[in-house]
Specification:
The protein is an alpha+beta fold. Helices cover about 30% and strands about 40% of the residues. It has a single domain, classed as LytTr DNA-binding domain (OB fold (Dihydrolipoamide Acetyltransferase, E2P)), CATH 2.40.50.
Amino acid sequence: MAVPLTFRKNGFPYIRDGEDVLYAMAKDQNAILQFENGDQEMFGYRLNKFHQLVYLSNLFRRVHRSYLVKLCKVVNCKWLKAILANGEIIPLSRKGYKIVKKYLAMQKKQAALQDSSAS
């Protein structure tokens, strides 16, 4: 499900797709959105507002007080750190670490099932 996000540049509004966001980070009273192509945009609302907008897409999880991440872009996790597909490392809370670790284990299990059924 596409989630349109409205931004302003030079006073003119423009729209970007929320599914192109890699992760969102809280900064002051706003959210900074990191896109998959490397762009960063300041979202004019708090992180909770972004989470409400993308909640139904079921792509993002809160993994830290200040971070929402697209789980399908997490490739590995170390203690309290997630490694994303683009090589960036973001912090995890203890609860966020459990969420990411469980997700990665499930992905590994699904891949093993697909490999065994393909053989």
